[in-house]
Task: structure prediction
Amino acid sequence: MKAPRISVVVPAHNAQLTLRRCLDSIFAQRLDGLSQEVLVVVDSSTDGTLQIAQSFPVKVLVTDARNKSKTRNIGARVATGELIAFVDADCILHPRCLQHMGAHFFQMPFVSAAPIRFVGQRKPCSGALPVISTGACIYRRTVFESLRGFDEQLLDCEDTDLTLALLAAGHVIYLEDRSLARTSGMQSRRRRLEKRAGLARLKKKWPLLGSLPARNVFRGNLVSTPGLSSGSSAEGAKSLHPVYGAVFDARSIRLVGMEDFIQYKFMGIEREFLGQMLKGDAAPLEDLASKYGIPLPTLKRDVRAFAAQINRVGSIPWGNFAQWL
Result:
C-alpha cells in the first residue's frame, strides 16, 4: 500500500542565509507511515539561493514572478501529495512536525487546513479567528485547489485572504497546541510597507473586516463580535447569523458566521464528544442537553448546521449524524 504523501513547498527569494538550515530540518523529519516530496521555488534570487537548493534532493523550480502568492501557487501546481505544507525559507521545523501534523489530517478527514504553530507564538485571544500563516502551514491539496490557491493580486495578507475563503466555503481549520516550528522572523521596512498595502486591498475584498485594527490582522487574530455561549437562550439563538466555517482545537469547536465574524463554541461540547459524534457512537443528545442545560431544539439545530457543513465538504458521511437529526 502506498504511503500517504506530504508535499513541502518552500518559496525562496535571496534566502542563502537561512535556506540550508530550513531544508536540513525538513530532511530530518521522522516520518512514520508517511512520505514526503520537497519543492523549492526560487523567485528572482540574485544570491546563492539557487545553488543551495540544487545541493539538496529537491525539485527546484525557478521563476521571475516577484510575487509570493504566485511563487507558492507554482509549487502547489507541481505538488503530488495529498497534503501541501508551505514552509518559508527562514523556518526550522521540529523533527516530528510533519508526522504529527499529517496524522491529524489522516485521522480527522473533516479538517481542511491547519497553521503550524511557532515557538513563542501567542495563542489566539478569546473571540478571535486565527489566520493560517503562510510561514508554516498545511492544506489538504484538493481543498487548496478548489479555492484556486492564493490570490496573486495580493502582495501581502494573502494568508488572511485564504483563511477567510476557507471559512466562507464551510471548511474546518485545526489548531495545534504544540509549537512545532521556529523562525528568524526577519522583516525589512519594505516588507512592512507591503503589509499595509496588502491590508488595504484585503479590506476592499472582504468588507466584513470593517475597521479592524491593522495590528490584529498582522498578529494573526481576526476579532469577532461576542458569540453565543452554551447558556444562551433560544431567543438569542434565533438571531444568530448563518454558520459557514469552523475552528477546531484540542478542547472544542467554534462555528463561524462570516457576515460579521459572529462565532460561538459548539454549545460547550468538548472535543471528545465531537469525535464520538463524527464516528456515530456518541451519547444521545438528550443526555448532553441535560448536562449543559441547553434546550434540545437548539442543540439539534446546531448539530444539523455543523453536519451540513461537513457533508458539503464531503469529508464525513451524512449517516453519521442521522440519529441526532
